[in-house]
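User: Fold this; tokens only.

Assistant: Input:
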Amino acid sequence: MRAFPRLSRWRAALWTVLCATVPVAVALVAPPGAASAEPATVSEEPVTVVSADFEDGTTQGWAARGAETVAASSEVAHGGTGSLAVTGRTDTWQGPTLNVGELLSLGAEYQVSLWVRSAEGSAGDTVRLSAERRIDGRSTYQTLGSAQVTSGGWVELSGAYTPSTEAEYLAFYVETASVTDGFFIDDAVVSYVPDPPIETDIPSLRDAVAGFPVGAGVLPADLYGSSGDLLVKHYESLTTGNALKWDATEPVEGDFRFTDADPIVDFATEHGMAVRGHTLVWHNQTPEWVFTDAAGGPMTPTPENKELLLDRLEAHIRAVVGRYGDRIQVWDVVNEVIDESQPDGLRRSSWYEIAGLDYIRTAFRVAHDVAPDARLFINDYNTNVPAKRDALLDLVSQLRAEGVPVHGVGHQMHINVEWPSVAEAEAMLQTFVPLGVEQQITEMDLSIYTNADESFPAPPEERLLAQAEQYRAMFQLFGRYADEVTSVTLWGVQDGDTWLDVGRKDAPLLFDAEFRAKSAFWAVVDPDWPNGPEPAGCVVEYRVVREWPGGFEGRATVTNTSAEPVDGWSLAWTFAQGQRLNQWWNGTASQSGGAVTVASAEWNGRLAAGGSATFGFLGTWAGANPSPVSFTLNGSSCAAG
């Protein structure tokens, strides 16, 4: 299991750290002298749900967290003449708070920002913007952002937050790290960018892929909005990304919490989806108390500690697996226990150091006792690597020979556009066929990068096509082993939320950050891709009609060269030199970084065989204004005319 973060939609739109792309509202009008155009439409812009400037002399809903005083002030202001003063603090957690429980929607990604400065005479401190969520009387806290603040000027404090589960109380607040001096806040704004709708007129993965069900790894926030719509349309199963790991379900001994897992299981049940429970035992995301001895110190390998650890393991599994019964039919019981560099091939985790193989034996036997009809898996990554594959084979063979109920092997399949080869992946599957166990692809994603040194401001078209070829080859392989491969799970819903975004933006899934099907999707669902019926062919003529310093007018004509009509078109390309569109007509445009998409208007969405549609736009440029060299229509490549 690889770490499964949730990224803010605002940050997911960034292809570089320094370049934030926020959709801007623009009146869509034709340039002077243009032919008649359809009525203008407006692209999605941030929707503001809180705007507090304190100019009316009130606190505008902000209150104190404790005994401190929160009051409107005209002493200093970031904008206008008013701000909010916080005085009389006796502890660092005291500060202004705003209850937003009735204002925010589940699954929407909110950007929170405000300006802060220390009171006169204060030496300053680190100030934090945080969120408090209270469920069943228990509060959890999340820091959204922090900044060093002094009395010398205003500093912006900002962060992103996604409410993912129902809460009895939800608030944003400001606190300090170490001092209790007073401070001021001003111009607080909470806003979000609505998700674009999903494409409803494309094939469904669940219908197009034969031989095995296709699922997705999810977080609770994925169940809402366009992400939830995408899950319902395309997927047959859900895997709990973080919600059933030990730190989420039992952070304190005996204190079980299912606030993140329950919504996922409920959503799956409501929509007729299966659930993969992930994961009962892992060396990561396990609370420290699990490996604390009876005296409160770190466990050492003694018989007493082994017994205590296995007792805790059994109690945990009985509670977690027992809660869901037959609603979860597949469990990743143990996760990432192989280390091929060790003489015996086993990871030297705290579990192993204290209990040896008995922690694995215990986990499977207890899970089977609680859920006798569930299928129990051992899950790992890089199982296509021969040394790791063989170590896993030896372990599974030994456990099954002992009568341990291991029903299946999970191959995570975090791969890239070049690695592994189909032959290596096939050897991985073939290795376990003689054991007679099920095999599942449990966390698949396919990076556009081939090494750690690469970084792209936007995914190059050739990498996306290579990704599509690799996805197609792997899905075809899984189909050939459909008797053994009983499900394939993708590790995420769309490219905007992926654990691979560490220091660079990746695009490893079938749908892009705007919920649009990529070439990889078409490669999976269409056996004839890239010459299949969705669409069979197209030509795009792109030209710059006129150009002036810093600006240009462009026009594009897309022609359907296939024998079949296209109902509803979406044309995409990437600008290489940072050009930006700011007006358009005869279509609706959106842009993220250099990536541009123009969707058909209501009146020109049907392209008959041989038919064409033309749209125009105004844009800006700096340095150079080269024409794009590649285009896709509804996710498939077009020829440039």
